[in-house]
Design goal:
By secondary structure, this protein is α+β, with helices and mostly antiparallel strands. Helix content is 26%, strand content 40%. The chain has a 5-stranded antiparallel beta sheet with strand order 1-8-3-5-6, with helices on one face. Strands 2-7-4 form a 3-stranded antiparallel beta sheet. β5 and β6 form a beta hairpin. The mean pLDDT is 97. Bound molecules: zinc ion.
């Protein structure tokens, strides 16, 4: 089990953590299997989506923001971040990604993102690997 520290610089942001996850596979000499990428936080999320056009990320964040405004008058939660809690549950707190030959089997246009909904702050992401090492 490994932890990645991810530092966000805006309230809402999608940060590509694919390279950090793949680095762990390399360090562990993990060759074939699956890895679970999970966060223990309640106001961010983990997802897999397009890494080619940055407009996809801004459209996703923009749509969620319009769907769930931070200043929704019916929210009661005193921290004033109920929008972030809801977005976190909609996006989910983990993804499972298979890997082969030590490389994530992401599609050509896919990346693993930590979705910040209540930044800026430092987040911890857990990477748990289930698989076998390279046979020598
Ligand atoms: Zn809260």
């Amino acid at each position: 089990m490994h932890k990645i520290k991810v530092r966000s610089s805006e309230r809402e942001e999608m940060i590509d953590i694919s390279a950090d996850v793949e680095k762990i596979l390399g360090a562990e000499d993990a060759w074939d299997g699956v890895c679970v990428v999970f966060t223990q936080h309640t106001t961010c999320g983990i997802t897999v989506n397009e890494n080619a056009d940055p407009d996809v990320q801004s459209d996703m964040l923009g749509f969620l923001k319009r769907l769930i405004p931070q200043d929704e008058p019916h929210f009661k939660h005193g921290e004033k971040n109920s929008d972030a809690h809801i977005k976190s549950s909609l996006v989910g707190c983990s993804v499972t990604v298979p890997f082969e030959n030590g490389k994530l089997l992401l599609g050509r246009w896919q990346a693993i993102y930590m979705c910040e909904f209540d930044g800026p702050r430092e987040r911890k992401v857990i990477v748990s690997i289930l698989g076998k090492a390279r046979t020598k």
